[in-house]
Amino acid sequence: MADIVPTRSALIDTKRKIKLSQTGHKLLKMKRDGLMYELFELLPKVKDIRKNLVTHYNSAQGKMAVAQAIEGRINIKSIAHTQQLVPTVKVGEKNIMGVVVPSVTGEAVRKTLTERGYGIIGTSPQIDDVVDSFEMLVEEIIKAAELETTLKRLLEEIDKTKRRVNALEFKVIPDLEAARDYILLRLEEMERESIFGLKKIKEKARRRAKEEAAARAAALPEAEAAVPAR
Amino acid sequence: MGLRLFRKTTTGTSNYAYATARVRAKKAKLLPRETYLKMLKISLAEVTQVIRDTDYQEQVDALSSKFEGIDLIEGALNVNEEQTYSQVRGFVEGEAKELVGAFLDRHDFQDIKVVLRGKHYGASQEEIMKELLIEDREEFDFLRRLLADDVKGVDGVIEMLGEMGGKARVYHSALKRAEERRAEATLSDYEDELDRTYYQNLLEVVRADTGAKKPFRRFIEKEIDIVDLLAVLRYRRAQLPWDEVEPVLVRGGRDLDIGDLRRIYEAPSLDDVATELHATSIGDDLDAALATGSLSRVDIAARTHLMDSASGFSHMNPLSVLPIIDYLLRKRTEVRNLRAIARGKQAGLDEETIQDMLII
Lengths: 230, 360
Fold this sequence. Notes:
The complex is a heterodimer of chains A (230) and B (360). By secondary structure, chain A is mainly alpha-helical. Chain A has helices spanning 8-71, 73-80, 125-226; strands at 88-96, 99-107. Chain A has a two-stranded antiparallel ribbon with strand order 1-2. The two termini of chain A are 79 Å apart. Chain A binds chain B through residues 61-62, 65-66, 68-70, 72-75, 77-79, 81-84, 112-122, 124-126, 128-129, and chain B through 70-71, 74-75, 78, 109-110, 113-114, 117-118, 120-121, 123, 130-131, 186-188, 190-192, 194-196, 227, 230-231, 233-235, 237-238, 240, 244, 248, 250, 295-296, 298-300, 336, 339-344, 347-349, 353-354, 357.
């Protein structure tokens, strides 16, 4: 409180700050609630995608095991060399309540039978099965990457917003209110002091006037006695 | 090995009696169905020991410095298979040699495909070498030239094949044909053209519709039917237009002409495919597999059918090339089954899944 100047302008400034903080607090609370809503919307999707990811991974590994058993690891490795279009990932941005989250899209992930590069006559359907399942797995990984990063960013933002809400609610606004109260108190004190001072001066002036009047009244009979009668 | 391709028609006398007696003896050494069923019930270490205790010990020892674990077993199985082919090539003579050689050329075509894949990917010479099944010195020298570091990409391989001349030109002209079919040929175009060339060459060799070649031709035509059928089913599943399917097919099969294949392609369901196939000799054997809806099952059923056909043909033609072909197929199947059991056990697949993968 030592650095607070108890002036009217400081009071006005503090009151303005309190109002701003309260508005900010309200908005941040709304943002937090909105983010929480988004989070709860996203959570089941993330859970599903994680579950799908595990299912697809196990399925792909199982099919790879079957393909390696039937075709041999050497042949599978050789067929893997035929890849012509390498899958790529494009990362964009989108905005959820002011939070910038990634928008991940895969390119050349799913390919047609002819785009895969290996010949059809000399290979077996097990190869198609294993390529299919790994393509699906990559698709799921891309989806999971987008959703899980979004979830992470949302959680970070919710945490940040919560800290800001708490700081405003429990620190900034109470401090400003205390400052306002202090200024008000000081201003009232100063006003009282000023009134008391004025009263004192007024009393003093009144007393002086009274004395002067008494003095004048005392001086009047003497003057009358000095004047001879006609 | 390209150098064996387009061999001149052999004029010497065939030693069918001797050769078939040799393969009969070799066939007796192949693992029976019961052994596979027993192997399904034992641990991976025991499976490995069974493989070592059979015909494969020598190859396991030879490769033990280069590979380990299941890779060692797979390598040993592959080398043993190649050596078996070499042995068979060694004891057949005359027309039998020509036919067996033409049949086994599929492995040489496969090696060219492996080289193309490796070069396309930019794999090192050593890496590609590990993926090849090199049968002898002659083949090693042939492939080494293609794998040289200054041979870059698929175009480099095609150019080198052209420069090598001689019989390597068979591959060269097949690859050039792929480029004629499609200006910007893809690796799958090259691979399919090589496979088509193999079957067309094989049909060319067995064209004479008489004597010992006749049953062999029938068998090859059956194999082409199966190859085309599986390709059509895969394209059908991928929902690609017929225009893309037709040029890929080998054609020249016995039971399925292009009209049949198109009908199969256009069949609304696998049940309708089964109905279409009932009119052919393949149909009944594929019914159960088609009913599952799994093309992998259909593939295994088709391979089993082909092996049974080879067996049937060999019984009907005991003094022909068919018993030899039957043995070669059985040997390939044994290697495939042992690999499936070992790899399946290693991957932790259950007994039923592994059994479904076996051709027994």
